[in-house]
User: What shape does this take?
Amino acid sequence: MKPVVTKSGAACGAEIACDLAQDIHDATFREIEAAFHDNIVVVFRRQNLSNERQIEFSRRFGELEVHIVKKYLLPGYPEILLISNIRDERGEHIGLADAGFTWHSDTSYRRRPSRCSLLYAKEVPQRGGQPLGDTVFANAIAAYEALPERMKKRLAGLKAIHRYSARRRVADSPRPKLTQAQLDETPDIAHPIVRTHPYTGRKSLYVTAGECVGIEGMPEDEAVDLIAELDTHCTRPEFLYRHKWQVGDLLMWDNTSSMHLAICNYALPERRLMHRTTVIGTVPV
Ligand SMILES: [Fe+2]
Assistant: This one.
């Protein structure tokens, strides 16, 4: 049966009515994938998924990444990264507590960055009946298309340099410092600033101030200014969708054509627990 897709009304985002605990036939999967490409961010509400089921559904979009920060992988399920502010009995965070506090696209520091990420909400902080910890998405296709022609010409062929360790963390970030081996595993990588979607062929901006430290062949100060200008442009209100979480949401987003930002407006005892799977994508072109 064709899943019902309801658009958010914002620059991207849609809800797909589908119980992912049931078998998803190929024809239904193709409808879901088409809706995903069309809307960039899609949510499946009120899901009841086992770890195996989340992994299985995620794998239909491609090979899964095992995140570089091994400390926060779900025991027994290395494909699932815990995102959480919860602490264990020793007072240590059980998951990444400061994920996504600057605009970024997941694993853009990889040679083959993520195609999409899937985040399953197990616990959502609330205050006064309102959910906290929203995630904001920017539609990078709409942002590219809105650029003046002279800027599109200027950007053609340019590559920005992405650096994993460039991302700003909270001052008291609890995540372990990267080892030399992990740093060696994530060298600086140059990707096209304007990338072409591997499935739809649409062009989008692929650059963020939080991750990009320069542009190949461009003086550093000029490059930093251009990156900041593009970041500001891409995150203008008309390109945004803000997701308000409910327990049971499986939210997935297209990392090839959007950036996102986690809003950290909660603190213990307001608990947040998410299970993330990350699908490896193609080399950006
Ligand atoms: Fe992220």
